[in-house]
Design brief:
Elements (H helix, E strand, L loop, with lengths): L7 E5 L2 E8 L5 E6 L12 H7 L2 E6 L17 H15 L5 E5 L1 H13 L6 E4 L10 H8 L1 H4 L4 H13 L8 H8 L4 H13 L4 H4 L12 E6 L7 H10 L4 E5 L6 H4 L1 H12 L2
Parallel strand pairs: 3-4, 3-5, 5-6, 6-7, 7-8
Antiparallel strand pairs: 1-2, 2-4
């Protein structure tokens, strides 16, 4: 993934999880969570910017994603990821960090907080998977027939993943960014992992926590790409209305991949929120 790499690792019930930290060890801790089918690479511009502003930034690849371990029968569900994230916070010694979470990462952060007792100083949700219904027709088709898609010839599989990832961006991804996001899903190991994480995606993981959103008692900002075709902007308005005191920040001309579509605008919004 270019010059983006994660130097540290932690063994979990779902295999090896890769992670790293950037910035001043004395800085206010911030943790960044990615979504699917992405990796921590989505933060490769924003993480250094937050670190340069004085924060100690933690990034990680969810189990079964990016540079983290991938293997058959691996539990990469949102339920497992929430427990892993709770364990990571304990491993890092972070009692109350600020958290920024995109897509599936939003559900992971919310589950860790609402079900597993993880405490945050602030929570920024970026186009999160948080409200029913979710999952595009393509996503549901693959989930129902993952065993068939796993048998696609490698070139067809890679073409499918490239088209799918590309559709998350409004302005289009730079070639190096697209390669970095698609690369972990190629090869026999990556191809199986790609369909595994879709097969295990289940709306029940958000259904379990959606009724608890009105109980969230911490500063929350909801950032949303106004041109998101994966999860429409209206869902951002709905989510902000369910969380007491939450502020909705529209990100114009950005699709679902806001961290790559509009890194400068998102960084500015996050810094304003983190220092408010």
């Amino acid at each position: 993934m270019g010059d983006w790499s994660l130097r540290e690792s932690l063994e979990t019930a779902s295999g090896t999880v890769r992670w790293d930290r950037l910035g001043d060890p004395a800085g206010e801790p911030v943790v960044l969570l990615h979504g699917t089918p992405f990796s921590s690479y989505v933060w490769h511009e924003i993480a250094p910017a937050l670190a340069a502003a004085g924060h100690l930034v933690h990034v990680w690849d969810m189990a079964g994603y990016g540079a983290s371990g991938m293997y058959p029968d691996q539990d990469v569900s949102l339920g497992a990821q929430g427990e892993i994230f709770t364990g990571l916070l304990e491993h890092w010694g972070l009692r109350e960090p600020s958290v920024v979470a995109h897509d599936f990462g939003g559900c992971v952060a919310l589950r860790a907080h609402l079900l597993h007792g993880a405490r945050y100083r602030r929570l920024a949700l970026v186009d999160p998977v948080a409200l029913e219904p979710w999952g595009s027709p393509f996503f549901r088709l693959v989930a129902e027939h993952s065993h068939v898609f796993e048998q696609l010839p490698a070139p067809l599989h890679e073409a499918l993943v490239r088209e799918y990832v590309t559709s998350a961006s409004r302005p289009g991804l730079r070639p190096e960014a697209l390669d970095a996001l698609v690369g972990p899903w190629t090869g026999e190991r990556g191809q199986g992992a790609f369909y595994r994480q879709i097969a295990q995606a289940d709306q029940r993981y958000t259904d379990e926590i959606q009724p608890l959103y009105p109980t969230i008692d911490l500063p929350v900002t909801v950032c949303w790409g106004t041109e998101d075709t994966w999860i429409p902007f209206a869902k951002g308005q709905e989510l902000a209305g369910l969380i007491p005191g939450a502020r909705l920040v529209p990100v114009p001309e950005a699709g679902h991949l806001v961290p790559l579509d509009a890194p400068a605008l998102l960084t500015s919004a996050l810094l304003a929120f983190l220092t408010s």
